[in-house]
Amino acid sequence: MSYITLNTDKLKHNYLFLNQLFSRHHTEWAVVTKLLCGHEAFLKSLLSIVGKDACDSRLSNLKKIKKISPATRTIYIKPPAKRLAESIVKYADVSFNSELATIKALSGEARKQGKTHRIVIMIEMGELREGIPADSLMDFYGEVIQFPCIEVIGIGTNLNCLNGILPDRQKLTDLVSYKKCTEQRFGQPIPYISAGSSVTIPLLMNGNVPAGINHFRIGETLFFGTDVFSDAVIPEMCQDVFRLTGEVIEIYEKPMVPSGKAGTNLMGESPEFSEEDMDKTSFRAIVDIGILDIDVKQIFPLSDGIEILGASSDMMILNITDDRNLCKVGDEIDFGMNYMAVLRAMNSDYIDKVLVDDKKESFISEL
């Protein structure tokens, strides 16, 4: 049986660290929950710790959050599809937007539901993902405020997710200027500039975030304790909130180089082998995790003397050097994971999800 664990004590530690950081800088922040893929037990645990706004890019996840915690403010953090307008208004208190036609649809649905739907206007700042051109903000805002049942509560931007464009003081200063100019022209306050994500945290720590940037959306750093800007870690935070565990289902001493005519494997690859390994053997262990569940390039064994050799759809092959006693059939082997590895594992119905704490007490939650 393979499973992924979430350590609630370490998650709480990371939350408290970040909450103190943002409090010192008088900045609000919301938790990005999409990594949990709507898993109800994990969401309940997270929401019991953070008690904050929840951001997600999947409507089904926001629906579950509203079921668990109706008072939590939910934020849909990508431009909505027009066809989802009814559900967006129903389950998302706030949505990020960049298209007038969609905002018009949200306005109509908000009127039907007797609600005011709040939006953040996303602005393109060099990443070339979502966002209106900055020079069209005034015209765009002027159109948006004509829609009934729509309230603009902020402007925002996205960086680093597609092309890796990093935030800097100039980009953030420009956003502050856009907000001030819009407020002056239309005489309406815009409460938030949602311009910070995990990649912006190091700038905040170094005093390079200008006054006026007052809202962050945080996922990766909360769950992994990472300094995304420098591709490093924040020493005061925990990097092992998540762990992957697989069970050994076979161990044999086998040749290090396969025999027979080789084609491509199921990934379309043609593995290469060193001639130095010809006629050599090693102990190879198989664990019950495959590429259907995980990208083997995004995980790493937590025990010395173990090397990942590759994987097929349902099994992963390990080299346990020349020491068969490192493990035996039925033993469990633990792996560390990065963000994308956790996202893929959480999205697999074939990996159990387990909550643990530092007392090593655990329970296996529903698939």
From TrEMBL:
GO CC list: cytosol
Essential cofactor(s): pyridoxal 5'-phosphate
InterPro entries given in the database record: Ala_racemase, Ala_racemase_N, PLP-binding_barrel
Domain of life according to the entry: Bacteria
Gene3D superfamilies: Alanine racemase
Keyword set, alphabetical order: Isomerase, Pyridoxal phosphate
Protein name: Alanine racemase
Alanine racemase N-terminal domain residues: 7-225
Heme as UniProt keyword: no
Molecular function per GO: alanine racemase activity; pyridoxal phosphate binding
